[in-house]
Structure formats: C-alpha cells, structure tokens
C-alpha cells in the first residue's frame, strides 16, 4: 500500500491518479470532498497532519509514503515522519524544492524546507527527496488578467526559469515510489528549457489565438500584491526568490524526467495548450 498526501494539489493529485491506475492507493485528506481521484482501489482517510490518530489510521499497513507539506510554521514533516517511523513505513518520498541544494538560496521558505528535509533524515525512515523547479501551473494565477483584459502582469519579465510541468514531477515521484534503489537520494527536476514570463505570455497568446500584452510589475507593486495574500516572511521569500531568478539562478536544465520516466519533460507550450481552457475568455 502507498499513502499519498497533498492529493488535492498540483502534484499530489497527479501522483494519486497515476498510482490508482496501476493498483490500490490510500489518500490522506483534510477535506475528502475535494479529492478528485476515485475508484475501486482508492481509499480516502480523513485527517490532518496534526491529528495523530488519523495519521496512525492512514499509515496502517503502508509501505511507502508520498509527503507534501506547505505550512511555513507547523512541524508537519516531523509529525508525519515520526508517525511513519512508528508505523513501520519503509520509504518516505518528500516533495521538496530545488532551491534547497543551492547555497545562494537563503530565504525563509527555502530554510524551512531544509529543516523539513533534516527532520525526515533524522526520523530513521528511508527517504528520497524530489526537488522540482517552479511549477508551470503557477502561471494559472495570470488567468483572471488574461480573461478580463488580455494582460499578464508579473515581476521581472525577462528572468529565465526552467519551470516544470507538475505532471512530470508526479511521474518522477511515482517512479521513485514504485522503483528500487532510490533511498537516500535527492532528485532535482526541471522542465526542458529556461523560459521567461514574457516568452510564456507569447506562447499563451499563440495557444489561445488572441493577442496578449505583458506588463512588468514594479517591485513595490509586486510586494504589495504579495503582502495582501501572504505573511511578510513568505512574501519576502518570494521576492528574494524572484531576485535569484533575475540573476539566472533558476535557468539550469536537468535531465531527471527523461532518466527516471523514459519520456522527455513537457514544454511550457505543451502545458499551456493542455490548460488553455483555464485562460480562455468566458
């Protein structure tokens, strides 16, 4: 049995779907009604990371675990790793981030992920870290501006990033969960090319068949927008990350998707074509 967490998110949903297509899978979800992966072999356990009895129920009889956490303050990795160790889980695969392995990345979110990885190492459970670059799906945040005005607004329009399709990240995670020899390894995962927000806008324009305009946000406007949605440490972390991207720190392409799954990483053009409906005017 494999337990999947984060199954309502971009990667966890795909991991659960891939596993469910091949055999039984169990999902831990705080809101089971939001889980879209269903079937005879899919078992959904309701519970949160802070609910140890729910964790114990979800982990009973589990061999492998896919872990996604996103709280910047709660010790969720420690909670899950401790429960997994007690339950005799043999392999924990954690969704982390590529910045963890980059010395120049020292923002709040990256430091927290490093701490989370260390907690898993110390748990005694065999581990693998899947460390993707920025998700292509993050550009879904542009959809309201595209639908209403044909405009993309973003910070640093010419900063390149080797963004990755969440489906490819999920395929790597499933290869690790179902394969052998991956323990104590960390896999960086990128897309096939470094691309800028301005170039993504142009590709979306071609896919949608309508003109789109890119407007670069000023730093103050970007900070205000982030602070309206996130606590200051998180907003500051996003801004620091954007500065690293502008300096070229996120442009490197790695061949992990091809090596672990046997297929080429999907391009942003492919991702955008597959998700065109999300940007289409109503």
Keywords, separated by commas or semicolons:
about 280 residues, alpha/beta, 7-stranded parallel β-sheet, two-stranded parallel sheet, 11 helices, about 40% helix, about 15% strand, globular, NAD(P)-bd_dom_sf
Give the secondary structure arrangement, pairings included.
Layout: E1 2-4, H1 10-20, E2 25-29, E3 42-46, H2 52-59, E4 64-67, H3 76-87, E5 91-95, H4 108-122, E6 126-132, H5 143-149, E7 151-155, H6 166-178, E8 185-189, H7 197-208, E9 213-217, H8 219-227, H9 232-246, H10 256-261, H11 268-274
Parallel strand pairs: 1-2, 1-4, 2-3, 4-5, 5-6, 6-8, 7-9
Helix pairs in contact: 1-6, 2-3, 3-4, 7-11, 8-9
Rg computed from alpha carbons, rounded to a whole number of angstroms = 19 Å
Strand content: 15-25%
On the 0 to 100 scale, the average pLDDT is: 95
Low-confidence stretches: none
Structure class:
alpha/beta
Count of DSSP helices? Answer: 11
Fraction of helical residues: 40-55%
The major beta sheet can be summarized as: 7 strands, parallel
Q: Shape from CA axes?
A: globular
- The largest beta-sheet arranges its strands as 3-2-1-4-5-6-8
Distance between the termini: 42 Å
Order of helices and strands: EHEEHEHEHEHEHEHEHHHH
Task: Tell me the number of strands.
Answer: 9
Query: Which oligomerization state do the chains in this entry correspond to?
Result: single chain
InterPro entries: Ergot_Alk_Oxidoreductase (IPR051604), NAD(P)-bd_dom_sf (IPR036291), NmrA-like (IPR008030)
Protein name: Nucleotide-diphosphate-sugar epimerase
Organism: Streptomyces badius
Domain NmrA-like: 2-243
